[in-house]
Amino acid sequence: MADARRSAEEVVPRVSSKVARGESPAHGAGAFAIEPIAKGELIAIFTGRITHASETDFDDYHLQVGEEHYLGPSGELDDLVNHSCEPNAGFSPQSANETPILIARRDIAAGEEITMDYNAIIDESGWEGFACGCGASTCTGMVRSFRDLSDMKKQALKPWLLPYLREKYFR
Q1: pLDDT for res 93
Q2: Which of 87, 76, 82, 162 is nearest to 123 (CA)?
Q3: What is the pLDDT of residue 171?
Q4: Burial of 158 (0-12, 13-18, 19+ CB in 10 A)
Q5: Separation CA 93–CA 80 (nearest Å)
Q6: Integer Cα distance of 41 and 25 in angstroms
Q7: DSSP class of residue 108?
Q8: Where are the domains of the chain?
Q9: Regions of the chain short of the pLDDT cut 50
Q10: Torsion, Cα of 12, 13, 14, 18 (10° steps)
Q11: Strand, helix or coil for residue 169
Q12: CATH hierarchy code of domain 8-170
């Protein structure tokens, strides 16, 4: 009898087969739904090399996963999830610090760009942020460090935060 156990990598794809690379009108390359994605459905498990801030290339894709630690580029579609002030994806509460899991915040239609709120993933002291050009009707005009957001905005982002931010601010 064959062993029925499988590794998590075999059972859950790192990036959903419902997602593909496309051209984002606001950001250049992006990740897009090629089939409908249901609310709560897995979109991607972020992977990459974890580095200390002192060895992180901030000119390349990176995702902050700890106070001074970053997940570098994987070379896959998870590197192409862009920012929106009205995102359709966020991080699952079941994510671990080293393996952030992106899920659909709402139903996502085929053809729609997969986006997350970068305010929910950055928490750097003294970071000036950057101008936002997402085009959302509720665009705030600026992406900031989580620590610099209003208490109301922090509460709104709480369900979709990276694990280290949830732990740091909402234990």
Answers
A1: 84
A2: 162
A3: 83
A4: middle
A5: 21
A6: 25
A7: B
A8: 8-170
A9: 1-12
A10: -120
A11: helix
A12: 2.170.270.10
Residue 45's identity, in one-letter code, is I
User: In this structure, how many other beta carbons lie within 10 angstroms of the beta carbon of residue 89?
Assistant: 26
pLDDT value of position 145 = 94
Q: What is the bridge-based pairing of β-strands 115-116 and 82-83?
A: parallel
Q: Compute the distance between CA of residue 146 and CA of residue 151 in angstroms, rounded to an integer.
A: 10
Cβ–Cβ < 8 Å for 143, 124: no
Cβ pair 117, 157 in contact under 8 A:
yes
The amino acid occupying position 144 is R
pLDDT at 11: 41
Specify whether the CB–CB gap between 31 and 20 falls below 8 A.
Answer: yes
Strand partners, 31: 21
Six token digits for residue 80? 């192409």
Cα–Cα distances in Å, from 135 out to 50, 111, 113?
A: 32, 17, 13
